Amino acid sequence: MATTLAPQQYQACIEACQDCAVSCDACANACLHEQDVQMMARCIELDRDCAKLCYTAVSFMASGSGFAQQVCELCAQICEACAEECEKHADHMDHCRQCAEACRRCAEACRAMMGMSA
């Protein structure tokens, strides 16, 4: 059984950020295979930005950085923007629906970690 070295108070947020990053990477890849890729350009851009920042937030929390809360604040903002864009396509693209849900969960977890109301 693996043990975690990350500060325990960050564990739920770390898991939400990891899930979101993977969902965003998967969504961006799926969007690249849609028939009208140009229509998905903004979604792909936000997916990539969101995934990168989620992975960064995980790293900051895992190391117990004093800047983890600031990184998570920005992460929550980008997650919200990504969720809003993905929701535009969620009715006809399941990958966007799943990504939007993961982004919303991540934004909530980041805000909870920061002691803010979600």
Question: What does this entry look like structurally?
Answer:
- This protein is mainly α and 118 residues long.
- The chain has helices at 11-32, 41-62, 68-87, 94-113.
- The model is unreliable at 1-5 (pLDDT under 50).
- Helix 1 (11-32) runs antiparallel to helix 4 (94-113) and helix 2 packs antiparallel against helix 3 (68-87).
- The chain has a single domain (10-113), classed as Substrate Binding Domain Of Dnak, Chain:A, Domain 2 (Up-down Bundle), CATH 1.20.1270.360.
Give structural attributes:
single chain, 118 residues, mainly alpha, disordered N terminus
Largest sheet, strands/sense/barrel: none
Put simply, the count of helices is 4
CATH architectural type: Up-down Bundle
Amino- and carboxy-terminal Cα gap: 32 Å
How would you summarize this macromolecular structure in one to three sentences?
With about 120 residues, the chain is an all-alpha fold. It has helices at about 10-30, 40-60, 70-85, 95-115.
What topology emerges from the helices and strands here?
Elements: H1 11-32, H2 41-62, H3 68-87, H4 94-113
Helix pairs in contact: 1-2, 1-4, 2-3, 3-4
